Amino acid sequence: MKKNTSILNSLYLRIALTFLALLVVIGFAYVIITVYYSRIYFQHVNQRLNHGLAANIVTSYPSLHSQQIDQENLDQIFRHAMSINPNLEIYLLDSTGNIISYAPREKKIVLAKVNLTMIRDFLQKKESKYITGDDPRNPELKKVFSAAAIVREGEAIGYLYVVLTGEDYDAASRSLLSNFFFELGFGAMIWTLIVAFIVGLIVFRILTKNFRELIEVMQKFKDGELTARVDVRSPGEAKILADLFNEMADILTANIEKLKTVEILRRELIGNISHDLRTPLSIIHGYIETLQMKDKSLTVEEREHYMNIILESTIGLKKMVNELVELSKLEANQVHPDKEPFNISELLNDIAQKYQLIAKEKNISIMAGLSHNLPPVFADVSLIERVIQNLLDNAIKSTPPGGKIYISTSRVDDKLQVSISDTGSGISLSERERILGQSNKTEDASGLKTSTGLGLAIVRKILELHDSSLQLDYNIPTGSIFGFKLSMYKN
Question: Which domains occur in the chain, in start order?
């Protein structure tokens, strides 16, 4: 249990750490995005508040319209404007955008010309439009500005271009931005992350509750509590996983029970085979020893009698070995039925004719009540013939002299029923369960006859290949009825 608990804790820890990392990434992204749009917001506000600044300067100083520009007078105008707002950078442009003069003069400029496209756009648009233009001191940057045309006799002879955020503003902004980033990132963001992380842990704890229960049940199942099942009622992936586990557990439990039954039957079968093999081997061994010990004293008739007994025992032993090999192939799925349509009544009639001589020697009557109007079945002829032969062998061995064996066919729904009954001593309930593969008991395994061991085990396997099963109706002491059903052939 400790191992599975550590697995769950590890999963929970990984989820928590992943969630924390995600929150940190989202937090920093939020700060960066907030700072970025805050700068845009303040620039937009700055431009909107100072939208008419350049026009006011042009209006306030008519000397800007004169043909001859007095640099000293111009410097005085610029100083006066910058005394109100030191962050301004003022540029006087000609009609093509060339910089004629600028302030402050102590700072060098890089661009000699300003792109008039943004200036014309600024003059034509409303105040709500956010527009940036060239920064002559730093060509890589675009800054908000105010601009006004200098008009003489109805024609623009130049422009007054005022950058609202100069280098001093940028330096102060960067300094304040770092402080703002620190306060926002390690102030509000930290508290937000802490609260979100705690809430997330609680939520994850609730969400993983079903998985904890699933792991606990799986551990119980692993420890041998095969009846342990998961009860998850809330819909979602956990319920799907729980249902799959429950279904898998049911299948495994059923398979385990089947394996236990098969193992019990296998042990019983081995016991039966050992017993059945011991008998002919003992007979062969005994008579061979007799032949060796009494070799010179035996008559020809006695020697021939002993040799016939040995021969019959070896034939029976060979038959048992062949059946054992046949059964092993069937259990290993090495036999694949070659199905074809054929008339089951004709096959039964042919086999019954072959067994008449054997039955006559034992004073047993074989009677057939076969219907020849039945449709053909779809099965492997040779394998079904093996089934019928084994059932007839079993019936002949179980029927005393003067008894009867009855073979019949009938139609049951969409199947054809084959039945072979005898008037033997019948089969007990415990033997019946072992014959049909339903026994969970191992006692008295040697009590089964050879005919109810290998022969009927082969019958069950062959019928399984045909999606059928062996049926047994018993009625002590009047005998028993073995039967099976086959699928009809459909064109």
Answer: 2-43+174-207 (no CATH), 51-163 (3.30.450.20), 237-327 (1.10.287.130), 336-487 (3.30.565.10)
